[in-house]
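Structure tokens please, single chain.
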Amino acid sequence: MQITRMAGTAVPSSSIFPELEPAEKPTAVQAAKHTVRSKLRIVSEPVDRNAATHVRATVLSFANMHRYGDLWGAFMRARKEVFVDRLKWNLPISDGMEFDQYDTPYARWVVIHEYGEILGGVRLSPTTAKVGMHSYMLRDAQLGLLEGIPTDVLFFEAPVEDRILEATRLFITDAVPAERRLAVQTVLMENFASAARVQGATHVIGIVPAVWSRWLRRLELGAVPVGPRFEIDGTRSQAALFNVIKQDGSAKER
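Here you go.
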């Protein structure tokens, strides 16, 4: 993908949320106002909680991962299977684990698992993070520091606020059968929101693959698009802002 470098604030140009993309691409100011005022609430279909009876959510950090044996390693190997083996993303790999420059002590990893098997997860990072030349993925992309993600990934300047976290590497594995996916997705999204709130966040921003558009038809979730659609290694994506303050969840950093 050809990357266009940008001077100053992002501007609209060229997916999880195709139905959420504005009919006309707004200016940066219009998009910012739309983000503040708008929220989509989608009525969810009933979730079979029994399908997730034994599913657990654990929030890992550098400080606590030693308590959970190989859970973090298994999670990073599952990420490699999803993003490298299945989606064919060009990402760093070591010892069968996928990782990047954002897997730092700033991060928290929400791991969904059952009897030791990884079912899904997501990485949460503060938008105030700073490690060398890097901050967080969306901001670094906007500053032209990343290949494969356009500099106009957002309609406005990337936020740097304590109350906003970034979500990346959101996934459910192929090990989850179709009849259980909704229940497992629900556990992930509830605990994704809960873990964000534990960190003091009210909103989470992130790039989400198109496959997750199905979730918004099934789960109660407040979200608005905050960038144009684009492709990452053939996967259609879009930046979105999630409201997590009203989501119920039970994950705690232990």
